[in-house]
Design a protein that fits this description.
By secondary structure, the chain is of the alpha/beta class. The strands form 2 sheets. It has a 7-stranded mixed beta sheet with strand order 1-9-8-7-2-3-4, sandwiched between helices. The protein has a two-stranded antiparallel ribbon with strand order 5-6. Strand 5 and strand 6 form a beta hairpin. It is globular.
């Protein structure tokens, strides 16, 4: 299901905001696989002018993680990281919702299009705000794990399940 109400233009300046944890868990739960973030960036950029691509990650200090973070940077992402919070009782928290929203709003003055790479319905108010302020807002996520409200709110939706042969690592 690819929803598209606004055509993509080559002269569009875009900002890409990737909720890495959301994408990681979606790919793992749906396909027992991992995301090829280099290909993902190519797909969502769609030959438009990339202003910034930011990947938001949670650190847990493992060797695999260090290599993964380096691969994200080589693929063209700027990394923002924070430590996983572990609360008394064992509950873990590590979400980036507020910081991603602040960055998207801050960068909205420099871009024509904001691409949210996440299936998290918590971003719906952000999408509505950015649209109200004249931006084209696109969402990319795995259709089965993307909030219907988020898909509905976005101008365009890229269902990564339709390009899973490209965006999932073999």
């Amino acid at each position: 299901m690819n929803k598209s109400t606004v055509p993509q233009r080559k002269n569009h300046r875009i900002g890409v905001f990737v909720d890495v944890s959301n994408m990681y868990h979606s790919a793992k739960n749906l396909y027992k696989s991992r995301v090829n973030f280099r290909e993902l960036l190519k797909i969502v950029t769609a030959n438009r002018e990339l202003v910034r691509a930011i990947a938001y990650v949670i650190k847990s200090d493992t060797k695999e993680e260090k290599a993964f973070f380096e691969a994200l940077e080589k693929a063209g992402f700027e990394l923002k990281s924070k430590d996983l919070q572990i609360f008394p009782g064992g509950m873990k928290k590590g979400d980036w919702d507020v910081a991603i929203a602040i960055d998207a709003i801050t960068l909205s003055k420099l871009v024509d299009v904001v691409v949210m790479v996440s299936g998290d319905g918590d971003y719906e108010p952000l999408v509505e705000y950015l649209k109200f302020n004249g931006l084209v807002v696109e969402v990319a996520g795995f259709g089965r794990s993307t909030s219907a409200r988020l898909i509905e709110a976005a101008h365009n939706f890229t269902d990564l399940e339709e390009v899973k042969d490209k965006v999932l690592l073999k």
